Amino acid sequence: MKQLSLVEKQAARIVAALSDCAYERLDLGGGAEQLADFELRDHRQGRLGILEVTSTVVGELAAFQQARGKYPILDARLQCVWYLVMRSAGVNLKALRPRLLPLLLEAERKGTVSQVLEAGVNFASGEEPETALSKLGVWMLTARPAPRGRGGSIHVNPPAQGGGLGLEMVTVAVEAELNRSDNLSKLAKVFPGERAELFVWLDGPAGMALVTPRLMPRHPSSYPTGGPRLPHPVTRVWAATGANDTDVLARALWVADGREWRVVQSPLRLA
User: Fold this and answer.
1) Neighbouring C-alpha atoms within 13 Å toward the C-beta of 227
2) Residue 248: phi, psi to the nearest 5?
C-alpha cells in the first residue's frame, strides 16, 4: 500500500477544515489506474468530489534544483562530502562545477572545514582558497569525512530564502501544476456537479527555508488578486507554504475558484 506523506495528510486536513467536509484516502497505490489522493465526503459520507495533492519549486529555485541534478560533482580525490550555500540562486552551476573542485581539494589540504566566507571577518582578504570561493559566490561551507572506501562529493545549495514571493510567480507555478497531464487525468474522474480540487505546496529545496508569500489576513492591502485559470474539470486550487511553527498546518494559504486568489488563515494543527 502506498504510504501517505505528511504534506498530503496536512493538505487534506486543511481542505476538510475550511470546506466543512471529511476526507477519505482514495489512491492506495498499486493499481493500474491513476487516482486522486483523496475523496471528499459530507458528514453523512456522501461523496462530494476528489482532491489531488502535489508540490512544486518556485521561480529561480526551480531552475537551480533542475541544474543541480544535471551537474553532480563527484571525485575520488575528495576526502570529504562538502555542503556549500551560495549567495544567489541565480548562479550558473554548469560553469561553477569545474572551478569548485580544485578549490575544495585545496581546502581539504589546508583543513578548511566549516565557516562563513566573509573576508576581514573570519579570513584575511586575499587568503586562499577562501577568497576564490567567495568570489565564486560561496557564502558558507561545511564538510564531513566521506564514507570509507568512497570518494567525496560537493553539494551546492541556494541561499535560505525569506521575504515575499510575488503573486505572478505563485500563479505561474500553480498554473503549471494545473496543466500537468497526470494531475488533470486524476481530477477528470469526477461525476457532474462534483468538486475536483488541486492542492499545491510551494516548496524550496530540502534543508532550506521555504520561499513564502508573507500575506496575512490582517493586511488587506497586500491581498493577491488575479488568480490562475482553472482548466476543466478543476473547480478549485489551493496554494500553500509549509508551516514555520507547530501551531498551524500552513504558513501561508491561498485559494482560488477560477476568479481571484483569496488569502485564508490556516487551520490550527490541533483543531
Assistant:
1) 20
2) -120, 165
Give the three-class secondary structure for 134.
helix
Length of the chain: 271
C-alpha cell at 168: 505572478
For the stretch 87-124, what's the b/e string if a residue is b when 16 or more beta carbons lie within 10 angstroms of its beta carbon? Answer: eebebebeebbeebbebbbebbeeebeeeebeeeeebe
- C-alpha 175/C-alpha 17 separation (Å) is 24
Cα torsion angle, 156, 159, 164, 166, sign: negative
Residues 210, 158: Cα–Cα separation, whole Å: 11
User: Rounded to two decimals, what is the model's pTM?
Assistant: 0.62
Whole-angstrom CA distances from 177 to 43, 51, 58, 162, 259 are: 30, 14, 11, 23, 17
H-helix or E-strand spanning residue 99:
helix 93-110
Top-confidence range, 70-74, 81-85, 118-122: 81-85
28 has pLDDT over 80? no
CA distances from 110 to 99, 129, 236 (A): 17, 9, 56
Handedness of CA 162, 168, 173, 174 (dihedral sign): positive
Give the Cα-Cα-Cα angle 111, 113, 116 (nearest 5 degrees).
125
